[in-house]
């Protein structure tokens, strides 16, 4: 299929063939980028042998540009809406339309086997087209936090993609009409390895279809479903011999009924929704095998966490709410020495809905820092914090790549603010950090602290700054550092348009900026100081919307700016304004 | 883009121009200061602004304040540039109009601005912490189940025999243990 010239080209004295062979072993996109810059021939070779591309924002290039550069792509990942969309901050119609991409894929990217769309708007027609044109080769389809399609579109996929190994729909907003799509999948597919419709609210699915899939697909390893009664899954569990991961389900009956349920022998990644104290003992027989535990949607209190986690010495990944409490964190630190990833989400605000012990503070963080030395990822909502806890993390967690901390706003007084010194210690100690998010409150970090962040973030590529700094000089100090920063998100800070523009110009690796909450200028045009070729600037003006909780809230304006080879967008909805348009 | 002189500032208090013409980048500068002499202040406002502000006062306030306490409407007389206009407004509306007028001529103090709402800028305290959609959905579902179960608990309070219900708040587990 590759277009090879008859004449044997030589690059630096070596035949093309040598480089082609070597390139096949180079997968990292940054390495491949370096290769492509050496000379024209290597650029061409690299383009022809590139198998996977991730576009961090789908508007940075056109589908045609992608296809022309990498004609033989086998796998593509496209991201649309800003990350803030996961928190309901972005208008639903913002953009990230899959249609132009699906059209290009269907027309010309004939080697494509894997499509991953994240936070994009996908229509049933797109799925139909994809199924019709690529159904015979498509192995992986991931509609990750997408919206705009219905179960009809999914049915097209199920009917046409008989070789599908991965169908991933997690957190997508799907319009549910029936359960046909799962039935079609059960009827047509024997290759499925991953089935995921977790957190989609798809409820018209039949457990019989799940059972059939388990019977037909011998390699079925990971299944994450919606709220299906666990007792209806007895058959499914019996036949799913290769199952390693299961999440979802719910418990509507008395705990006794679940005691005799048999689970697949290889099950080591688990998340049982709405599981409460009474049902917890179900997990005990294989708790010691567990590598991943998802308790985000369980109904356990602090004591339950302590009881359960004690039995999981091989745990590598834990996701739960802050109901785990400091005490649970201490048990985790003692019992789960292999822990690599820890995510502690924010529980309910109302006191009666969560355990009163359910707060995480410096006490829990310090325990984790000292006990889980293999930790690579931590994301945590804390109610209180100290510099010492952060220092402890910097001293002990040498493998940390991803640090995210949000200080909840419930407590009026925090033990030890500002966190300047603690953050500096954390950043200089954890020198492998690639991703960093810090969300505090006014007074949480001074301008000096913000400058520290800039000075000690050699390798950090993505950052979220929430309520940090005191003035523009903090931001300017910050932007003199951060040599690797590619993507910056800023929320609730007090920086002026002018400072933001200057910071953008100083951050030499920056290619994407998102800001919500800033000090606007008199003219509103100070932002244009960062205008430059290939740099798109967009504004989402302030608007009123009904929040998820049903209250009408005011959304302040957003700034979104990014490098693009495609020029300004051509598909703006009314809620988004390009800044160059305003300038006319 | 229109830029105004110091005596008549173009202020899109109710953000009307945002929808109609995005070109107009106007902003509101307000400070919380005591209301001064109403006539002296109003005389300095841009007439266009005043007209639109008062005209939309009725509709905007209903939209802005869902918890709207019905207040008595009273006439507000405005002397401006040789003309006299009378509007029926509620005390809330009147106060807002006065604040608007006050803001039109005040000195901007960047450090202690408390309601700095430009086209983009909203001061930090106004940004609520938002929750991830999936978690929010779960917490909603849990609340619904809790309400439902509480209703059942209440009705079965004195029933004997086997009860198959979901209880998952500590309060209720403890209550059952006591029985």
TrEMBL record, chain A:
Domain COI1 F-box: 13-52
Record GO cellular component, one term: SCF ubiquitin ligase complex
Gene3D superfamilies from the UniProt entry: 1.20.1280.50, Ribonuclease Inhibitor
InterPro entries: COI1_F-box, LRR_dom_sf, Transp_inhibit
Top-rank taxon: Eukaryota
GO terms, biological process: SCF-dependent proteasomal ubiquitin-dependent protein catabolic process
Domain Transport inhibitor response intervals: 72-117
PANTHER family the UniProt entry points to: CORONATINE-INSENSITIVE PROTEIN 1, F-BOX/TPR REPEAT PROTEIN POF3
Name of this protein: Coronatine-insensitive protein 1
Organism: Deinandra increscens subsp. villosa
Lineage summary: Eukaryota, Viridiplantae, Streptophyta, Embryophyta, Tracheophyta
From TrEMBL, chain B:
PROSITE patterns named in the record: TIFY (PS51320)
Coiled coil: none
Gene Ontology CC: nucleus
Boundaries of every Tify domain copy: 69-103
Listed InterPro entries: CCT_CS, TIFY/JAZ, Tify_dom
UniProt KW Cell wall biogenesis/degradation keyword: no
Compartment(s) where it occurs, according to its Swiss-Prot or TrEMBL record: Nucleus
Domain remarks in the Swiss-Prot or TrEMBL record: The jas domain is required for interaction with COI1.
Biological processes, Gene Ontology terms: regulation of defense response; regulation of jasmonic acid mediated signaling pathway; response to wounding
Major localization listed first in the record, in broad terms: nucleus
Name this polypeptide is given: Protein TIFY
Function of the protein: Repressor of jasmonate responses.
Keywords attached to this entry: Jasmonic acid signaling pathway, Nucleus
Family the entry assigns: Belongs to the TIFY/JAZ family.
Source organism: Deinandra increscens subsp. villosa
